[in-house]
Amino acid sequence: MRYNLTRTNSDAVDVVIPGELAVQCLREMPFDKERAVAFVKEYRKYLQYQSTIEILPNPPANYPMPPTDLLGGLDDIQKKAKTGLYNNQFDFDTAISDLLKSAYDGHLGASLCSQQYFVFENDTPLVSVSSNGTALPQVYTYSDALQLHSQSSVSPIASINGADVTDYLLSLGTGSQDWDALYNAQFKSLALSLNVHGRSNSLQGRFTNGTWSGAYHMLRFANGSNSVVETTTTVKNFPFENGTSFWENVCLPKNTSNATPKILTSTPNLGAPAGYPKPTIREGANRIMGFLPDSKGLEDVAVLAVPTFAESLEKVPILNGAADFAKIARDFIHNATSAGKKKMIIDLCGNGGGSVYSGMNLFRLFFPNKDIYSAGRWRAHESADLAGQVVSFFPSGPIWLNWKSQVKPDQETDFKSWKELFGPHTTLGVPSSSLVSNNLSLGSSSTEPISGYGPIKLDPTRSAFKAEDIILLTDGYCASTCTIFSELMKAEGVRTIAFGGRPHNAPMQGMGGVKGSQTLPLTTMSKLMEQAASLIRAFSNSSEPIVASKDMDHFDDIFPKPLEKFPLNLTEGAVNLMNAFGPTNDSLPRQFIYEAAECRRFFTLDNIRAPETLWASAADAMFHGGECVPGSMNGTGSLWPKKPSIFEKLLGSGLLDKDH
């Protein structure tokens, strides 16, 4: 079929087409089983660095997500490819991406060639709305929800495509290791839009913007009415005549060099974000914002909104990003105390992570006299062993494989050899490295400061707020660096309130995203392995080779090739390199520990539209004795027990005799 989506004029024009037409084009791509089989073989070498491979098929009992076997699943895909059971490249790529999604790990993914051109979306954002913050919420289209205050006849959605609305939305979730976090991500969110710059529809929720899930969504409302929502995609000067042309241009490797990203000379100023009150101080890309509200319930409360710890905007690095972030955080804490604020809300809604050092530094600004505990293990296997034996020869090699630049979690004890770092040790069935930490004193610098480490002086020198006067506010999306920061704060007694999630009276995790402590981009690994392979080959004929010449065939079978030598294009992707561990348990990764927030509330319509009302709701529950969702307190892993009843309060005060 010829796809007439090009324009005759010279101007690039966006054209919205039915998603079904795009998928028809994708499924007209050919399938080359030899390339596909070879692709799986090469990709498997990269997947070996995923830190949770052995745990996922049989995770601990309290881990909420279903088990999955990544390597077994990849073997199955390879067998099907070898026997020609895939009809086209798109179906093959979909099988791989579905397998990776089954890990529910926001650090794990791959940009497969057929999935890079079309983004599927619709124009009907949804919201989950509670009448008062503690009553069970219902799902509405956003346009209907806006009428809730004026029309009692507005009807919630009961089902989508014949499935219960909650079950259907959960089936679309990916990237978080918690059902409530996955559920929240489907809905319109002002905070989440600040985390994902460059995706025009991202603030509308993943229901409106994601992978292919069908040509239509049939919404059935509680009052019996129906609405059909079409899936569309936007193309610009589509240059391919048919599926074969498409496949040849996007999937077959080409000898092209990667463009060097443009470095900004200053942080772009986006203007204060819509929906938020005017910040007292903010960073230009709105990655951190400080507020000193005086509205009801917030008179003595300061709010630090941190929707991301990232150091890039639309994939473009921001000059002095971590340093600017640190200065704004430090200045705002000073401003808050100068303004007489006694309590602090740290709003982490939408925070998917970013710079680890920014998260660690923010912790030190609140608790300057507390040391940072950081501990991780990476998966120890043959190709990592070979790479690690030569990394110390690199002029600027990767820290995680260089035993000379690593320290143990006490930040004082060095490793004496590669063997001491590599191990391997067995932790929850995973062949793992020794427990390791980046050397924070060596890593802290003027560009990536950690207060009190290395050349960075300790500032402030004492805590401005007590732990009981600080709360973390999340929507469960908190992932990666956000979880590292939250874990450090929690260890000092800082409580968490989580908003939203599934419509049931139960606890909710505040940190629902990946708790792995380090992501490893495939592009970074590709360059590293290319350098390591060159050195290993150069040493192969020496008197003490790492791999002898006679064993080079086996080396080629296990050692990752550069991405540009793959039989099919793989431009981006990542694995979770490092499992994180707490100071009291060095064998169970934090990824598999359930940690309920101390309190939970649901979003009201006002909370969704105006974050200041969300902060007031959080303050009411955590500082002023307001109610939490029934059954949400005292969950597994939370800091404090449930709130005492009136009887218990009277008993504790001595006004009531326990025998009466």
TrEMBL record:
<dbReference type="Pfam" id="PF23658">
    <property type="entry name" value="PDZ_CPAF_rel"/>
</dbReference>
<dbReference type="InterPro" id="IPR052766">
    <property type="entry name" value="S41A_metabolite_peptidase"/>
</dbReference>
<dbReference type="GO" id="GO:0008236">
    <property type="term" value="F:serine-type peptidase activity"/>
</dbReference>
<dbReference type="InterPro" id="IPR005151">
    <property type="entry name" value="Tail-specific_protease"/>
</dbReference>
<protein>
    <recommendedName>
        <fullName>Tail specific protease domain-containing protein</fullName>
    </recommendedName>
</protein>
<dbReference type="InterPro" id="IPR029045">
    <property type="entry name" value="ClpP/crotonase-like_dom_sf"/>
</dbReference>
<feature type="domain" description="CPAF-like PDZ">
    <location>
        <begin position="120"/>
        <end position="236"/>
    </location>
</feature>
<dbReference type="InterPro" id="IPR056186">
    <property type="entry name" value="PDZ_CPAF-rel"/>
</dbReference>
<dbReference type="Pfam" id="PF03572">
    <property type="entry name" value="Peptidase_S41"/>
</dbReference>
<dbReference type="GO" id="GO:0006508">
    <property type="term" value="P:proteolysis"/>
</dbReference>
<feature type="domain" description="Tail specific protease">
    <location>
        <begin position="300"/>
        <end position="497"/>
    </location>
</feature>
